[in-house]
Each structure stands twice: as C-alpha cells, then as structure tokens.
Amino acid sequence: MSEPGDIYLAELNDEQRHRVMVASSSRFAQLSGRVLVAPEIVAPPDGVPFPWRIETEDGAFAVDLMLTIPAERLLERTGARTRLRRAAWLAPSI
C-alpha cells in the first residue's frame, strides 16, 4: 500500500504514465479505493521553488494541482520523499 511521500509511476486521466507523489494514507486508499496525488511538473527555469511545490532530488511535484485517482492506477513505486509526514507539509509553518 502507498504512504504519503511515496513516488509512483501512475496512469492519469489522459492514460499516459506520469510520476506522482502520494499525499494520502493507505487507510484512505483502503476505504475509498482512491489515492490523492500531486503530479510531477517541470521546475521553474530560475531554480526558485514555489511554496506550493515539493522538490525532491530528481523532480518537483505540484500540490496546487492535486487530484485523486483510482488506487489501481498506481503502477510502479519509483522512490519516496522520506522526510514527508502526513499533512505536515500542507500546513503553513509558524
């Protein structure tokens, strides 16, 4: 089962494969049959990240473009953002 921060190759609405970062828990997927994901995007050319984007060693994921997909569309786990914790990255820092 997927956990927050896992990075998967997934089949999105256009039936093409894209990398996504999982934002929902395995319990959510179990109960709903769906997974909340942030799609990978091209990083800004100047290298300045937006606060609503999550950067990893090899990509950036758009929290502002989150969507839900059926859990069976997660095809292959390709990595993880290990420091990501449940919903902690959605809350503003104080």
Question: What is the structure about, briefly put?
Answer:
The chain is 7% helix and 41% strand.
Task: Give a description of the structure.
The longest helix is centred in the N-terminal third of the chain and has 7 residues, at 26-32. The chain has one domain: SH3 type barrels. Strands 1, 2, 3, 4, 5, 6 and 7 form a seven-stranded antiparallel sheet that branches. The protein has one helix at 26-32; strands at 6-11, 17-22, 34-41, 53-56, 59-62, 67-70, 74-80. It has 94 residues and is mainly beta. The relative contact order is 0.29. The chain is globular.
Order of helices and strands: EEHEEEEE
The CATH architecture can be given as: Roll
User: Cα distance, first to last residue?
Assistant: 32 Å
What would you call the structural class? mainly beta
Provide the fold topology.
Blueprint: E1 6-11, E2 17-22, H1 26-32, E3 34-41, E4 53-56, E5 59-62, E6 67-70, E7 74-80
Features:
single chain; 94 residues; mainly beta; SH3 type barrels; 7-stranded antiparallel β-sheet; 1 helix; globular
